[in-house]
Predict the 3D structure of the following.
Amino acid sequence: MGADDNRRFHPSLYPMTATSSLDGIAPLAHWGVIRARGADAASFLHGQLTSDVTGLGAGQARLAGYCSAKGRLLASFVLWQAAPDEILLACSADLLAPTLKRLAMFVLRAKCVLSDATAEVALQGLAGPSARAWLGPAAPAAAWQRSAHGGGSVVRLPDADGHERYLWAAPAGTALPPLPPLSADAWRAGEVASAVPRIEAATVDKFVPQMVNLELVGGVDFQKGCYPGQEIVARSQYRGTIKRRGFLFEAEADASAGQEIFHSADPGQPAGQVANAAGSAVFAEVKLAALEGGTLHLGGPGGAMLHRQPMPYAVDVDVTA
C-alpha cells in the first residue's frame, strides 16, 4: 500500500481478531465430499489434478486444484486415501455437483467410480487446544499429514493465527468428539486467516493457481505429469508472468467471494477479486502493481476500503519480475 494509506492504517486498528476463539468443533456444512473408488482411482485423479495422487500414502493428505484447459481453477480439494482403492475429496459444497459431473465425463474406461459421498461422510472442523488434547498422540505433526482417530480420518490443515486446525472425516452417525462447539463464522474466519484458497461457486474459472498462491501452500506439483491446464500453469511459474497474488485484507465492511476490488488510481477496471471472506476478513487476489500506492476498495471505486494484513507465509511481491 502507499505511504498515504500507511499513515491512516495500523494493524492494531483493523486486526483480524475473529480467530481469537478458534477452539472446539464446527460442522462443515459448506464442504462436501466426492468419493473416487476403483483400481484406477488414484491414476485417474493424478491425470486430472494439480497434485501428485499416485504417490499419496496412507499417512498423507493433499491439497489440489482442478483446472480448465485454460489453466483456471474449477475447484480445489483436500484429498486423502480412505482405503487402498478409495480416495475422498473434500471441496466447496456449492460446486460439488458440477465438478463431479465434469470429472465423470473423463473417466472413460478407467476403473474408477465417482460419487457424491456428502451424506455418508460427516466433515467436522477441529481447532485449538481442545482439539489437540482430544487427538493426543494421533494428532498429525504437520500440515497435509493424515492419521486415524475416533472412528475417522484426521487431516492436519495449515494453522490460522497460530491456532492448530484439523479436518475430521467420519462415517455419518459416528459419535462426535467431546469438544466445545465452534461457530461456523469462527471456522470460516480461520479458513481465511490461513490464506489457503478454497474455490467456491462464485470464483469458478477465475484464477490460475498462482493467483491465489495455491503452489505456495502445497497445492501444485511441478514434477508430475500432465493434467488439464498444466502447460499454462507451468508457463506462469517459469516465465515470470505472475503479476497477481493472494493477500489477506481487513475490509471496512463485510465482503463475499467473487466481489471485485478496485484501485483508487485506476477506477475504471478491477484490480482484483475476493477469493474467500468471513465477515470483514478477506483473502483476495490483486495485481501486484496495485500494492505500490493508492488505496484498494471493495465492490467499486467508492466502496469500503481494504487494509492489507500480514500473511502466514512469504509471497514475492516484486512487480518487476
About this structure: Residues 1-17 have pLDDT under 50 and may be disordered. The first helix runs from residue 3 to 8.
